[in-house]
Amino acid sequence: MTDSRMTIFSIMFGIFYLAAFYYDLALFRYYPEVGQFHFLRNDSLGVVILWYGWIATAALASAAIAFAVPRNLADRLWSGWAWIIPTVVVVAMLIYERRWFVS
Amino acid sequence: MIVVLLIVHGLLAVALLGAITHQALSVFTVASASNGRWTFVNRFRGVDATAYATPIVVLFVVTTLGGAVLYPQYRIDVRPALEDTQNTAANGVFEIKEHLAAIGLGLMPVYWQFWRKANGHGTAPARRYLTWLVAFCVWWNFLVGHVLNDIRGLLP
User: Is residue B62 exposed (0-12), middle (13-18) or buried (19+ Cβ within 10 Å)?
Assistant: First the structure.
């Protein structure tokens, strides 16, 4: 992966992770009580972990975008986006997660 | 086994916290003291920050993988107990911890890339702010991990 593709991957990862978490787009689900991975929801298997699936969704989607963007376009990307967009993602996540601290 | 893994996870987190804190302070632009004396803070931030980048990436990835292995135990044992005691804030800070671990993991390629070509003058601001963002993720996760680990002793 070239430098500019790595930048695009990292920028897109945060956005896709946030979308995967917000819209429940986990690539797979892990049920720790039975130690099983499933692609589909299965409530009879106890508590579910979606976090692994969100990361997998974000990694695959951002890698696809990083490779799909033409090289000349990727090389022209302003370096500031590399930290501005992830910072916005973190702030948006923190704002959403305020729900845990308000009654 | 899970206790050993938890201790190793904690020790790796300490190493990561130290490394990222050195690096995060090193990219601050601070005027040197007029009398030329080096204070503790000067010495703490006066490191070769570039040398920390690869160890930080390795430590971040390995520590996050350790956390991912420990996570099912938390989900089965700890989280239901927090829910039973209506401790929603504790659940909330852990939710943020897992998001920051994931977002930080995604940042590792660009973080490493910007430190690898650290000589480029135009990339200095991006390098600085990326480092501070990773430092925020590491500090939050470290503090929350320790507070939740000790929560039975901390709360009445």
Answer: middle
pLDDT tens, position by position, B28-43: 866 565 666 778 878 8
Alpha-carbon span A53 to A49, nearest angstrom: 8
> Do residues B131 and B111 make contact, with C-beta atoms less than 8 angstroms apart?
yes
Spatial contact of A10 and B110, defined as CB atoms under 8 Å apart: yes
Q: What pLDDT shows up at residue A2?
A: 62
d(CA B96, CA A100): 10
Classify residue B70 by burial, with Cβ atoms within 10 Å: 0-12, 13-18, 19+: middle
Question: Is the Cβ pair A86, B114 closer than 8 Å?
Answer: no
Distance CA A23, CA B76 (A): 24
Q: Domain containing B68: what range?
A: 2-154
Report phi then psi at A39, rounded to 5: -80, -30
Residue (of B140, B50, B127, B60) closest to A7 by Cα position:
B127
pTM: 0.92
Structurally, chain B folds into a number of domains equal to: 1
Residues from chain B contacting residue A65 (CB–CB below 8 Å): none
Mark yes or no for CB contact A14/B103 under 8 Å: yes
pLDDT in tens, A75-91: 888 989 999 999 999 99
CA atoms within 13 A on the CB side of A5: 11
Contact criterion met (CB < 8 Å) for A7 and B95? no
Nearest CA in chain A to B99: A93
Residues of chain B with pLDDT under 50: none
Contacts of residue B89 in chain A, CB cutoff 8 Å? 100-101
